[in-house]
Write a structure and sequence with these properties.
With 283 residues, the protein is α/β, with parallel strands linked by helices. It is built from seven helices and eleven strands. β5 and β6 form a beta hairpin. The chain binds 2-acetamido-2-deoxy-beta-D-glucopyranose (3 copies). One 2-acetamido-2-deoxy-beta-D-glucopyranose binds next to β3.
Length: 283
């Protein structure tokens, strides 16, 4: 997860794929930790935590690097849980408790333990207070969607007056009315705009033997979140999984073809180099 000030410039929304990713284990726990990590960076009334600055060792001056730690099993925690399986926002197929997954109740007994300090449990009431009159956008793939759902369900449990809407091109969004806190999810697999590409009779890519693939404009944000920077106060990004999803971006049959300033990048780049280009442009 990273927070980035994005680049503007897209005009036309793309046609992103709608296929879902496989369920991911431990997603809820991951959410809690990552969210805490993200939001501690942006808390309005607190000074930036020291792990924000480089070269601070994990525990000097009471500072804590929340990214540096491990998962521990702790049977004593999370009862009652931050939210339960009745939260409507959880996808049916991903709702482990409602789906009777055998270890569903055990999963929430894992918690993230940073080395040298403790991560306090998420406090939804405090969070709502702290982020009054704020709008937070999650931009990314299903991992970020899970983060969003987890946060929504945890907040909804303590504040039920919610307006459902879709701000700024979001896939879904909610405002917690008593606090005027809006959270929204903007679906994008690659952050950059992309679509199918088919070769013509001439052109540099055709001359290199390419016939079919995906055109990825490394300098144009996906239309689903192009309006998000102007709308939200805080943006939380993720990308990664789809860059190595051969069922979609088959390296031989339908490779990723990167375009910059509207022209093909040559020689063609592998996905990891393309991802670097996208991140450079979106920073
Ligand atoms: C925090 O820990 C992570 C994971 O070990 C590491 O990548 C990062 O550089 C650390 N950050 C600081 C500021 O020390
Ligand atoms: C889970 O178990 C309950 C109780 O046995 C049952 O009523 C319910 O249909 C099951 N749910 C699924 C998705 O199998
Ligand atoms: C509600 O929050 C938004 C930011 O998300 C802010 O622009 C707006 O002024 C707030 N409304 C009120 C009535 O405070």
């Amino acid at each position: 997860m990273a927070t980035r000030a994005p680049l503007h410039g897209s005009k036309k929304p793309p046609a992103p794929s709608n296929s879902s990713l496989a369920p991911r284990a431990l997603i809820t726990l991951l959410c809690a930790v990552s969210l805490y990590f993200c939001f501690s960076l942006f808390r309005k009334d607190a000074p930036p935590p020291s792990f924000f600055y480089p070269v601070v060792p994990a525990t000097t001056n009471g500072a804590c690097n929340y990214s540096d730690g491990r998962w521990i099993y702790d049977p004593s925690i999370r009862s009652p849980p931050r939210y339960d399986h009745t939260c409507k926002e959880i996808f049916k197929g991903w709702n482990c408790i409602a789906g009777n997954k055998s270890n569903a109740l055990d999963i929430i007994k894992w918690r993230w333990k940073p080395h040298g300090c403790d991560l306090p449990p998420f406090d939804p009431s405090r969070f709502l207070e702290q982020f009054r009159d704020t709008s937070i956008g999650f931009v990314g793939d299903s991992l970020n969607r899970n983060m969003f759902v987890s946060l929504f369900c945890a907040l909804r449990k303590v504040s039920a007056e919610v307006k459902k809407w879709r701000p700024a091109g979001a896939d879904r969004g909610f405002t917690f009315l008593k606090y005027n806190l809006t959270i929204a999810y903007h679906r994008t697999n690659l952050l950059a705009r992309y679509g199918r590409w088919t070769g013509g009779t001439s052109g540099i890519l055709e001359s290199l033997g390419y016939k079919d693939g995906y055109r990825i404009d490394v300098d144009i944000p996906d239309g689903t979140w192009v309006a998000a920077p102007r709308f939200h106060d805080i943006l939380i990004f993720n990308t990664g999984h789809w860059w190595w999803a051969p069922s979609k971006f088959d390296p031989l049959k339908t490779p990723m073809l990167f375009f910059e300033n509207g022209v093909p990048v040559t020689p063609p780049l592998p996905p990891d180099a393309g991802l670097d280009m996208v991140l450079r442009h979106m920073v």
